[in-house]
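Researcher: Let's continue the batch. This sequence belongs to L-lactate dehydrogenase, and it's 316 residues. Same format as the previous ones, please.
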Amino acid sequence: MAKEVNIRKVAVVGCGFVGSTSAYTLMQSSLFSEMVLIDADKARAEGEALDIKHGLPFAKPMNIYAGDYSDIADAAIIVITAGAAQKPGETRLDLVKKNSAIMKSIIGEIKKQDCQGILLVVSNPVDVLTNVALKASGFPENRVIGSGTVLDSARLKYRLGEHLSVDSRSVHAFIVGEHGDSEIAVWSSANVSGIAVDDFCEMRGHINHDKNMRAIAEQVKNSAYEIIEKKKATYYGIGMAVKRICEAIVRDEKSILPVSSMIHGIYGIDDVVLSMPAIVGKDGVETLVPISMSSDEVEKLKDSAKTLKEVLEQTK
Ligand SMILES: NC(=O)c1ccc[n+]([C@@H]2O[C@H](COP(=O)([O-])OP(=O)(O)OC[C@H]3O[C@@H](n4cnc5c(N)ncnc54)[C@H](O)[C@@H]3O)[C@@H](O)[C@H]2O)c1
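Model: Same format as before. Here are the structure tokens for L-lactate dehydrogenase:
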């Protein structure tokens, strides 16, 4: 019989840069009282668990340990960050073959545990690997989600906040589609606390919206490449994004987040995993929120879906 889910327990599979940073943000979040770290390199998981738990006297009590798959049976959320990372110049899609084989082997282990928790896939290419995890696990669609464009949307909000000299939390803007080169910034619904982004730009004395917005979207899209070029890996931003998604689930917040999930019939797109704003709560993705988009944005979203489907074919 399946073990009952412990809403206070999280598992992190893969303890490299992204996994260990996510574990560190989760330790500080007070969301969980138990966290198991799993890595193919057991010593790495043990080292990270030790290092992170030495911060506990400055945080809240929590049981943090390196374990194996038998420890994840009752975890509420299983964060999967295992896999090879992007090398300089390598696209996320280049990683597909390597990482889908790793994902299939991890899901095989998770399946043996009869888990009722939520899978949160972070490894890249995240949309394709979320699809692989969904199919391989047989879990219901609401319980298999990817971090998707939560990070990209945060980068967009950050850059817009900087450009407009306003708190990035007051900026409401989404990147949708693939977490990667075909992602789309949805300018048509972007706003600053209800004021259309173009109007807010004018208020702040900016003209040349189109040029500025195109430049910001390009910067956001290329952020990972730039960071990887400079410091080999990205992990702080995604660590915060993982914490935010876990928070929405554990606290049943019903927050609208652009996570990656299986799409059926939005703008004619079907049977592909990509990011659209979704209501996220205790059951994972509750429902999608099909925000209004311009016809040009819809066409780009369809192209993004097509790209992802083509890449998914390469994993078969
Ligand atoms: N979704 C996002 O927004 C986002 C952002 C940054 C990085 N990433 C992705 O996260 C992944 C991890 O990146 P990283 O920088 O931490 O890489 P890393 O190389 O530092 O860590 C990967 C870890 O996975 C482990 N691993 C490999 N195969 C495993 C297996 N079968 N079972 C358990 N553990 C296994 C390795 O031992 C290693 O510790 C990459 O795919 C990267 O592209 C995603």
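Researcher: Any comment?
Model: The radius of gyration is 19 Å.
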